Amino acid sequence: MKTERTPAKMTLPYTQAMPKKSRLKLLPVDTGEEPLGQRLARLRKERGLTQKQVAENTGLIQELVSNYETDRLRLNADMILRFTEAFAISADELLRGSKSTVQARKQPSIKLVRRMEQIEAPPLYQQRVLLSTMDHFLAAAQQSS
């Protein structure tokens, strides 16, 4: 007579129950009016960086940076740390958007700094002509607004 053993209850990785949705009634957290993806794009542009440069600084690829900026992907804790280091801001500033705009506007953008360095390259008389042209342009722009 053969005794059949019933197999021990095995749980396969894909057959486990899904986690239950929380029943907690939490108040919404204020993350500002700007969506996180738009905030990432704004912070990148304020610093004069391309998506490719941010990708290199964070160890990602450009497509992922684009997906985060368009809110196709949600940031996890690791990505939050990577972006805060790349933009030299705190996680609170990234997630809430509070101080970052004030700090970023105090510093000139990288594009502006690069152009100013290019202005310093020509001879002094050409620099004066260029700066004079810029002054006239800015004065005209202020009068029209």
Task: For the structure shown, list the relevant keywords.
145 residues, mainly alpha, 8 helices, 57% helix, 434 Repressor (Amino-terminal Domain)
CATH 2nd-level architecture of the largest domain: Orthogonal Bundle
- CATH homologous superfamily label of the largest domain: lambda repressor-like DNA-binding domains
Strand portion? under 5%
Mean pLDDT: 83
End-to-end distance, in Å?
Answer: 100 Å
User: What is the overall shape?
Assistant: elongated
Order of helices and strands: HHHHHHHH
The percentage helix is 55-70%
Count all strands and give the number. Answer: 0
The number of helices is 8
Q: Give start-end ranges of low-pLDDT stretches.
A: 100-104
According to CATH, the fold-level topology of the largest domain is 434 Repressor (Amino-terminal Domain)
Word description of this protein:
The chain is mainly α. Helices cover 57% and strands 0% of the residues. The chain has helices at residues 36-46, 51-58, 62-69, 77-87, 91-96, 100-106, 110-119, 124-144. α2 packs across α3 (62-69). The longest helix is centred in the C-terminal third of the chain and has 21 residues, at 124-144. It is elongated and about 100 Å long. It starts with 35 loop residues before the first helix and ends with a helix.
Helices and strands, with pairings:
Layout: H1 36-46, H2 51-58, H3 62-69, H4 77-87, H5 91-96, H6 100-106, H7 110-119, H8 124-144
Helix pairs in contact: 2-3
At a glance:
By secondary structure, the chain is mainly α. The protein contains 8 helices and no strands.
